[in-house]
Amino acid sequence: MAIDKRLRDHGLNSERLLWPTKGPGAFENEVAQMERAVGLTTLEKAVAWAQTKSMWPDTFGLACCAIEMMAIVSARYDIARFGMEAFRASPRQADLLIVSGRVAHKMAAPLRQIYDQMLEPKWVIAMGACASSAGMFNNYTTIQGVDKIVAVDVYVPGCPPRPEALMEGIIRLHERVLAGIPPAYEVRGVAS
Ligand code: SF4
From CA 34, how far away is CA 11, in angstroms rounded? Predict the structure, then answer.
């Protein structure tokens, strides 16, 4: 598939995790060792590193999943480890939208407005079955997946996903950014 090829081209680490026998090549190991030894990097890598260490989520909760999302700032899960504990009340100060819960059609316009007001680069996590695909709500009130109105970077499965699962999704997103993969809106575009 085109997207898979794209991820491979960018060297996404998590794909290797899904394929345990395939580790980094000898050349990649040598380059990594050399970079560590002499502190080589590129501006793009330094910017990507900084982005993953200061990715501020928007304060946005929709349903039951939001309670699990709130837990990630607690001492037990401690999202401050990644410099992400500052949930911003203004989308203009946020670069990560965690869609935590089902999206009713009434909420589509406000959600899209918040997304549009976020500055680029910006990322979206669809948290839970409802945000990803409407879950059990196969009816006329609920949008059948938030990716119909915004470009989603990471889907976190579960109903509700545990805070650990959301943390896993955040780490996967950080891996994508560090690997130089562009945000989803650049890869797939956004419906107008
Ligand atoms: S996925 Fe489950 S917990 Fe999350 S909003 Fe839907 S029904 Fe609630």
Answer: 18
Check residue 12 and give its pLDDT.
60
**What domains lie within the chain, and their CATH numbers?**
2-40 (no CATH), 52-187 (3.40.50.12280)
Q: How far is the CA of 147 from the centre of ligand 1 (A)?
A: 16
Mutational test site, ligand 1, from 68, 141, 159, max ligand atoms within 8 Å of CB: 159
pTM exceeds 0.70: yes
Taking the CB of residue 93, how many other CB atoms lie within 10 A of it?
Answer: 13
Q: Quote the ligand 1 centre to 165 CA distance (angstroms).
A: 14
The 3-state DSSP class for residue 182 equals coil
Residue type, 161: P
Q: CB within 8 A of 114, min separation 6: which ones?
A: 58, 60, 91, 97
